[in-house]
Structure formats: structure tokens, C-alpha cells
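Please check this protein record:
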Amino acid sequence: MARVNRRLALATAPAEAARRHGSVPIRLDKALDLFPQAGRSFDYATFAELVEEAAARLAGAGITDGQRILIVKQSNFDIPLLAFACARIGAVPVLVHSAVGFQALGVMTGRAAPAAILTDAVTESAGVLDSVDATLPRWYVGERGEHGLSLLDAPRGQFPPAAVPREDTPQLVTHSSGTTGVPKLVLHSVHSFAGHARPQITIGKVLRVRDPYLMCLSPVHARCMSGMLAILALGLPLGFLTDTAPENAAELLAAVKPGVVETVPNAFIRWEEVAERQPELFAQTRLFVSSFDAAHPRTIRTLLAAAKPGARYMQAYGQTETGPVTVKSHKLKSRCEHGRCVGRGVLGHTKIRVLDDEGDKAPRGVPGQIFARSSGVTPSYLGSPDQRVDGWWAMGDYGLVSARGCLHLFDRIVDRGSGVESLLAAEDDILEALPQLTEAVIIPMSDGGPAIPLVVTRGDTPLDLAAWRAAVAGLPELAAPVQCRWDDIPHTATWKVKRLEVARRLAAGDLPVLATAGEER
């Protein structure tokens, strides 16, 4: 079987990037937990050296080729560093966000069957590992913990020179969002994960991207890892954020002066206030990138208004299981005909189709379930059946292909039945009408009652109820809006609201709220 290019394999990408672009800088919003002495700024060459050092420690800890290694710790840039290090010695990193909770982590650990766990004392003391067998070897990033030693206490082990594995070699396991239950563990081979990165590199070359790249993504997410492959391959200066808070974003924007800014839509919406108050921080930005979820039109417009003239907002739709499926490019003066449009399939890489309620291919303009084909589709889940139907991957989303051949995304299928044609479109309309909101999510309730709008305001100021009533006047019946703080809302690793979890907690009365409007409309 053929081998993947050295730039597109986790085992070889850092060293290859250092060889080609060794002096290119990397700047972080906080120092590494594993190698704090490296500080917040270093270059590609140092990054490759740190990956080699971590690989040596992993080898000294007894981790060998083919083993799965569970990595669950506080979010930081050393998570992708450790993933590269695992791949460097032939191990398969299993990246899990600590926010999945101890019960889900217990299930996921059983499915992953790891040979060891990489964690930290803070994560352990928070109870995240309470359902995981304490006899499973644990190595700690930073200070040693209750059940093991610091990884840096391990001797430096030996491992062979770097080589690109065969295409079918398991390379990485990440997880789905978990919006509908226990997150699924998504396995990627060298070949399938190269299918995630390759379209990004193609787009970067077509757009002649050479600018500093500011990335704010969950370090455990597949998009973070494929983005790292693309950035290293293109040799771009990198700024990396783990905290989406507007003030944190402003600090690194000022330091990096990025030409490209990437985060998820639910972080970009928080950065609207940065674009309005300090537009000079985006003065050199010519490209915004978001993926996996559809961005709100208000967010796109606000960011582009602050950016360099002629800037684009590049929106990709896809999943951990597929990589990017469609791409849509926006400019400030070229508004899409529909706010839910997420573009067309990536030419030469992906195909999409929509099936109607009878399971037949839906004609253009008729909504149904969305399916995709891509070279980036996962070979399988670990411990769960996959979502292939006749060779097509079921995205779990509902939408249509427009008369112009664009995909319009309406909702997750599990969120259908609220009486609102498209929850996402309704949320777009509410956000357009109410600039004080940084979040508006309509939560369908299982008891059949009116859906509950969950809102977050800038600075947690009281919701303008008169403006609210005007904004929702044309929608089906909704319950009274519930106002919360951003940090009190259950989010996935990509900061997407867990609608089912919110519905459960609202019904149980254990979701912290700031206020509930006194009357239903």
C-alpha cells in the first residue's frame, strides 16, 4: 500500500515542518503544562524538539507501537504536542475533552481500551477519572498525581527514526460532540486523516495564504489536529488560543496581528464585541475560517466590517467523522441568498446528497437527511456502529440542496419537531434583531411544551424584553426566555450548546439562570 506524504502524517509532520520552516514562530496564550520552561513563544524547530523529547519520555514510560493512549487533561497546546509524540513512536493518541464528565469517560475508556492514560492532577482531582480503573497506568503532565508519576519522571527511551506509516495504519482517535449522549470515538487512519488536511492545504495554496494564523480550537478536536497539519505544511506563523474569552482573544490578536483567524462560530460570536470596540485588531485580517457549525450572518458581517478591505469569511461544514464536506466564502458586500447556506462540496474531495423522508434522493429545494462522501471519512468508530448507508456517511443533520446547488443546513435531526421550521434560522433572526445577545439557542422540550429560548447578553446585562417580544413576533409559540451566563451553559468541546443536556437540566431546575421573563408570549 502507498504511503502518505511526510507533511500529512502525524509521525513526521513536526520534523518535516522544522526542516522546511524551522524559524517560523509559534505563540501561545499560556505556557505548556508539559514543558513550561519553553515559555509562550518558540519556533517550529523548538516545537519539533519538544515533540521528540515527549516521544522519548513516552517510550521510557513503556508505551510502544500500536498501543492506544488516552489523553485527557486541561486544555492546552501540549495536547496536540503529545498527540504528535504518540504518533512519533507508533502509538495511537485518543484525545478526550475533560468536559465529557466522569460517567461518559468511563464508557469511552472501555471502548478505547487504552494501554495508559496521560492526564494531570487538576483533571484527576476534579473527579473526571472517577469511573476509570485506577490500576490502568497513569502518567501525569506536570506534577505527579495520586496514581502515578509525572511523565518527565520517566527515563528517556529509545525509538526508531521517523517514518511515514502505511496508509491504513490507525493514527488518531478523537470524539464526536456528544450533543446527543455519550460521545462516539472516531478512529482515523493515516489515509483518512490526510483527507482532512489535504483540502485545507489546497485552499491555502489557492488563496496564497502566507499570513500569521491565529487558531482558537479545542486541542482535542479533530479540526485542531488537521489544522495543525495544514499550518505546519504551509509554514505559517501560528498563534494558539485555548480560552475563547474576548479579552484573551484581544491580547493575542494584538501580539500576532493575524492575516487568518480561525475559531468555531460560537467563539466568533463572542468576539463580535472585540471587532466593534477594537477593530484595529483585525485590520490585517484578510481571512476568517470557521468549521463544523454554520455561523450566524450577523457574526460574519461584524467581523468582515472590521477586517482588511476585501476580506473573506470561509465557512466549512463537516464533522469529526468526515472532515470538511462543503465550503462557503463570504465577502462583506456579497451576502448569501440564505443565511443557512454552507456552500458546495469541496471540488475533487467531497460529495453531498439529501434523502427525503421516504429514503429517496430529494430534488433540489426539498429538505431531508444529509449524507456525504469524502476521502476523510473515518474507517470506523471504536465500540459503536458507524453511520454508513450504501457507502454514504449519515451526517445526522437536516437540510436541502438549493436551486443553485448549495447545501442549506437547518438543524440536527434529533432537534426536529419543535414546531419551528429551522431552529438555526430562527436563532439567526433573533440575533439579527437583538445586538445585545451573544447567544440565542432554542431548546425543544421533550414534554411537548413550547420550546425554551436560552439567551446570553453582553456583560450579562438584563434582557430588553420589549425588543425580545418584537424579535420573536413572527415565530411559532415559544416559552419565556431564560437568561444565563455563558460559563454556566453546558457546552461541547467546540463550545456548541448541548441542547439535550440543557433541556434535561431546565426540566430538573438545576441549570443556573440569571433571569426568566415573567410572561410567555
Summary: Residues 10-19+39-187 form a domain with the Rossmann fold fold (CATH 3.40.50.980). The longest helix spans residues 44-60. The first strand starts at residue 25 and ends at 28. Residues 251 and 469 are 37 Å apart (CA to CA).
